[in-house]
Specification:
Elements: H1 2-18, E1 65-70, E2 84-90, E3 95-100, E4 106-112, E5 114-120, E6 126-132, E7 136-139, E8 145-148, E9 155-161, E10 169-170, H2 171-176, H3 182-189, H4 193-203
Antiparallel strand pairs: 1-2, 2-9, 3-8, 3-10, 4-7, 4-9, 5-6, 5-8
The structure holds 2-acetamido-2-deoxy-beta-D-glucopyranose (NAG).
Length: 207
């Protein structure tokens, strides 16, 4: 009589312990369901801490912007928890061009400067606003959205996601930073060939 109760108790203890978290094993490949779990005895507090969001990213690039992610690939403690965070730095004139996160909704918090942010719904309704320090805006999962610093000084924001691996597809990169023949890009976007070739040149596309 005692033994079955004892074994049930031990089983309950071990299963509840195992379900607390699933720190990502970054040495294994990531699947759509996330990383496999690191062995519990190898987990340390540093798996649950990410340092680096206190430093501005390098905005000396074509978009004058930098994203510093703390996703599962950088911050294994969020693996399996349905959340992650990133820092966004925009120099004056900087832009995160139209993009989507296939796997997550996003909340953006402006902590410095001002940012024009917006998204387009599936019905092609436009929602955009100039956000200032302390404002937050939500971008529903999968929808195309952008962030632009129209102000004369740097802007900073922190963005949280409803996934440890939100994914990122940048519209212009998808259209112009690959080897899809220009004739096909033109036929499928109604854009002029000259404009397509120009953008392929700027972004590194071919054909
Ligand atoms: C920022 O990036 C640019 C271009 O890659 C590079 O020349 C520059 O040294 C970087 N600045 C810092 C502070 O890392």
């Amino acid at each position: 009589m005692i033994f079955p109760i004892f074994f049930t108790f031990v089983l309950l203890l071990s299963t509840s312990h195992a379900a607390d978290f699933c720190v990502g094993d970054l040495k294994a490949p990531e699947s759509p369901a996330g990383y496999s779990c690191k062995k519990a005895e190898k987990v340390t507090v540093d798996d649950f801490v990410f340092s680096g969001l206190g430093v501005a990213g390098n905005t000396s690039n074509i978009i004058k912007a930098a994203v510093t992610p703390a996703f599962a690939a950088q911050f294994p403690g969020v693996n399996g928890l349905g959340i992650s965070l990133a820092r966004l730095d925009l120099a004056s004139g900087g832009v995160i061009p139209f993009h989507t996160h296939p796997g997550a909704s996003e909340v953006l918090l402006v902590t410095q400067g001002s940012i024009v942010a917006g998204f387009i719904s599936s019905a092609n309704s436009v929602y955009y606003k100039t956000l200032k320090k302390g404002d937050i805006m939500v971008f529903p999962q999968g929808l195309l959205h952008f962030q632009l610093n129209g102000g004369g000084y740097p802007a900073t924001a922190f963005v949280s996601f409803s996934s440890p691996s939100p994914g990122l597809q940048i519209l212009d990169f998808a259209l112009f930073k690959n080897d899809l023949p220009t004739s096909l890009v033109a036929a499928t976007t109604f854009l002029d060939v000259a404009q397509i070739k120009k953008l392929k040149g700027v972004l590194g596309g071919t054909n």
